Amino acid sequence: MLDVAKKNLTSSITTLHHLHLLLTGVNSLEVWISNRKYGDVAIELPPVLNVLQLFDDYVHVEQVRKALSYRY
Question: pTM, whole model, 2 decimals?
Answer without folding.
Answer: 0.76
